[in-house]
Automatic annotation (TrEMBL):
Keyword Nuclease: no
Keywords: 2Fe-2S, Dioxygenase, Iron, Iron-sulfur, Metal-binding, Oxidoreductase
Molecular-function annotations in GO: dioxygenase activity
Domain Rieske: 6-110
Domain of life: Bacteria
A Pfam family recorded for this sequence: Rieske
PROSITE patterns assigned to the protein according to its UniProt record, in alphabetical order: RIESKE
Lineage of source species: Bacteria, Bacillati, Cyanobacteriota, Cyanophyceae, Nostocales
Signal peptide start and end residues: none
Species this chain originates from: Nostoc paludosum FACHB-159
Name this polypeptide is given: Aromatic ring-hydroxylating dioxygenase subunit alpha
Length: 354
């Protein structure tokens, strides 16, 4: 996991004046809107007895702890302890960590790191969000796997013909080969353009947009640090752009929040068909990704075999290592259980005796 980046931690519509817990980066945060509608992000842990503030309530733009009613401002400073008399000083340590927030492109973006504001990487741009010809749908899926594997899955062109053989990948059945492609370096990311010359009708709703015979499908894949993928599919009758934000909940869980934009069948009545198909494709990926071992991609490139079609994932691994080498990596969470090789956990013998 990487620090010093903006994380799109929740959809804007999901955050109200009721405190909401967000679990990412092996931590818990609480989000809520103040009386001006601005989003506040704090550590979801009262410094008094460790209660989750997300179980509390908003009071005059502040948040109250559900355990003893301590009141915290948007900057995390405690301003009231109900059990104390008014003249009793509030302890200096009665403070919780607050986090910078931006609300953009239908997401709440939380900055996690220690860089000053002027040195922070930018939020990736999503120009389709302002394009009236592109209709959006929103969804999220959970995968029981490390986020690095989930990102690589999104960047991989070669798995489509096999993993998605019963959906979009059906169009590659007659010609699954991947032509050589170049990976371009971009500010805070990478991209590649791939042309599929012999694509045929896929299964599912997208079959409506392809001619009966073979056609050319042009695709562009982008990766934006730390965890955003973009896949644009341009075919003769329209364009579909899929953005996915792969949130590392913990070392073994990824929550992917998605926006799909389409220039075809843009009426809202068609959303349920596109959502159903999108969930089907995501589930096909989930089954394979959850089977991978080790769950996190290896730090050493030589630990796994690579082919020319893996150029994007290799570039991602190198980019990730660049920022880990800068000291932008987060330490793995401490575990109270012992891991064993098949991915399950066992309680320690000492813990079982006590």
């Amino acid at each position: 996991m990487l620090k010093n980046f903006w994380y799109a931690c929740e959809f804007s519509a999901a955050v109200t004046n009721q405190p909401k817990q967000i679990r990412i980066l092996n931590q818990q945060f609480v989000l809520y809107r103040n009386s001006q509608g601005q989003v506040v992000a704090l550590q979801d842990k009262c410094p008094h007895r460790g209660a989750a503030l997300s179980l509390g309530w908003v009071d005059d733009g502040c948040i109250r702890c559900p355990y003893h009613g301590w009141k915290f401002q948007a900057d995390g400073q405690c301003v009231e302890i109900p059990a104390n008399s008014p003249e009793t000083p509030i302890p200096k340590r009665a403070h919780i960590e607050g986090y910078p927030i931006q609300e953009k492109y239908g997401f709440i973006w939380l900055f996690y790191g220690d860089l000053p504001e002027a040195e922070r990487p930018p939020i990736p741009t999503i120009p389709e969000f302002e394009d009236p010809t592109m209709h959006p749908i929103f969804l999220e899926v959970e995968v029981k796997s490390n986020y690095t594997r989930v990102i690589e899955n999104a960047l991989c062109p070669a798995h489509i013909a096999t993993v998605h053989a019963n959906s979009f990948g059906w169009g590659f059945k007659q010609d699954p080969k991947i032509e050589p492609y170049e990976v371009e370096e971009e500010p805070w990311g990478i991209s590649a353009r791939i042309t599929y010359k012999n694509f045929t009708k896929p299964k599912g709703i997208f079959r409506l947009f392809f001619r009966p015979s073979k056609t050319v499908l042009k695709a562009k894949t982008n990766f934006f640090l730390p965890n955003v993928t973009r896949i644009e599919s341009d075919f003769s009758r329209g364009k579909v752009v899929n953005y996915a934000i792969h949130l590392p909940v913990d070392d073994r869980t990824t929550l992917t929040k998605r926006i799909q934009f389409r220039s075809v069948l843009t009426n809202p009545w068609a959303d349920k068909y596109f959502l159903k198909f999108h969930y089907q494709v995501c589930n096909e990926d989930r089954i394979v990704t959850e089977s991978q071992y080790p769950q996190e991609i290896p730090d050493n490139l030589a630990d796994e075999i690579h082919t020319p079609s893996d150029a994007l994932s290799i570039a991602y691994r190198k980019l990730r290592q660049k920022y880990l080498a800068l000291g932008w990596g987060l330490k793995p969470a401490k575990k109270n259980k012992l891991e064993i090789s098949n991915g399950h956990v066992a309680e320690s013998a000492a813990a079982l005796k006590n």
